[in-house]
Write a structure and sequence with these properties.
By secondary structure, the chain is of the alpha+beta class. Helices cover 20% and strands 36% of the residues. The radius of gyration is 23 Å and the shape is globular.
Length: 171
């Protein structure tokens, strides 16, 4: 009789744990579909990296994107739901980048720096380095704007025209 009581008590203790863990698994994941497309009129290369406050760059990667080419990623977010954005789109085992440079044939480039959460000051935004930037500028790493389940970011001819000239030294 004593053995049966101990097994019954153990089952009573273990059962809530089993039930609570299966409930989380039964919830539907959120599906994300993110695309970056090059419609700039020339091939581009995405230079993606993490930069520390000291200016040191780590996990630098180059992703070529031919004219009219798209790169797409699908992501399933399970409970406890952390969300998804273009910074997560570029995630590696090293972590999440905070800078993406769009380099146009080593002639021009645009630098996107991740914005800081709650970083809005007097109708301007603050990036992760504390710099005040225009909230209205297109920014691939704007996690406030690009956080829906479906996002399509197009690099346009206008982006190329507005890019900074780097005189053949964009890297």
């Amino acid at each position: 009789m004593k053995v049966i009581k101990n097994k019954g008590i153990k089952m009573l203790l273990i059962m809530p744990l089993l039930l609570s863990s299966t409930c989380a698994i039964d919830e539907d994941p959120t599906h994300y579909h993110y695309t970056i497309e090059n419609q700039s009129s020339i091939p581009v290369e995405l230079k993606v990296y993490y930069m520390g406050k000291d200016g040191a760059k780590s996990d630098v990667r180059y992703i070529p994107l031919a004219l009219n080419e798209k790169i797409t990623k699908n992501y399933k977010d399970y409970p406890s739901y952390s969300g998804y954005n273009f910074a997560e789109f570029f995630r590696t085992n090293e972590g999440v980048p905070n800078v993406v440079e769009v380099i146009y044939e080593n002639k021009k480039k645009t630098v996107f720096v991740q914005l800081k959460f709650n970083g809005i000051v007097e109708n301007n935004c603050t990036n992760v380095f504390g710099e005040i930037v225009d909230c209205e500028e297109r920014n691939l790493l704007d996690t406030f704007k690009y956080r829906n389940t479906v996002e399509h970011y197009t690099i346009t001819k206008e982006d190329y025209e507005a890019a900074t000239d780097c005189n053949g030294d964009c890297y």
